[in-house]
Automatic annotation (TrEMBL):
Sorted UniProt keywords: DNA-binding, Transcription, Transcription regulation
Residues in HTH lysR-type domain copies: 10-67
UniProt cross-references to PROSITE patterns, sorted A to Z: HTH_LYSR
Name of the protein: LysR family transcriptional regulator
Record-stated family: Belongs to the LysR transcriptional regulatory family.
Amino acid sequence: MPGPALTHVPDLDSLDLLLRVAATGSLGQAAAAHGISQPAVSARIRSMERQVGFALVHRGPTGSTLTPGGALVADWARDVLHAAAELEAGILSLRDEREGRLVVAASQTVAEHLLPRWLVRLSVERPQTAVQLAAMNSAGVVKAVLAGDAGLGFVEGPGVPRGLGSRIVTRDRLTVVVPPGHPWARRRTPVGVEELAATRLVHREPASGTRAAFEAALERALPGHPPLPDPLLEVSTGSAVRSAVAAGAGPAVLSDLAVRDDVGSGRLVEVAVRGVDLGRDLRAVWPTAQRPTGPAQDLLAIATARA
């Protein structure tokens, strides 16, 4: 419920000006202390007097003194200004705390393969900022950002939920990989999208951005296709998916960022696919009504520049 309108209470700067007049006995000295002209001080005093409804300052040939009513207002003003100073100090301490600490929530692909070098750059630009990185699936990132538990989030899903602002930070590509002994590793022709959609895969959990992006890509390529088969195996991290595939469990779809080294070393084999676009955007997200500021804004700029 809104409080009453304080129609007879001068603003803080005017109250401080009144105290200056009381302390110096001079409109000129009060003007100098506030960095304004003496006529401006006189005008401000007259405005305050109209607002409160009685005279505050007696102007005499040897200086200016407060009227009895002005002296009472000045006494009350000291308490008001002291309370305002405490409020300002409290707000600044909260700002300093927020500026000195940043919680980042990121999907596992971004957390493992992109954020480390972004955070190194942030530590150079803001050495006093302590950063806490929480790696989770994209659904968890969305939940953390909307709840205010993270100052900035990074997701890899196909869309941005309501209530979040976003910016693309880089483009990624999903890659189908198999162990070296899998039949697809020896194929001379790409795997068709229909065959891929009908194959049981090693998957992340349903809330994973990688899995959601893959399923969205199949829906675009095969609108209204039959339900996908149950996963061959379902695990909760990308590294577990890679290990399962390398051990011979079966094919999987993972970020190119996550499998690049394994494919280069021969531990996994990349399989060509036709009929489906497996590119996707990686995004930074934040609450719509609260754009990133301070270290979160700096990290967003670093991530975008590195894109």
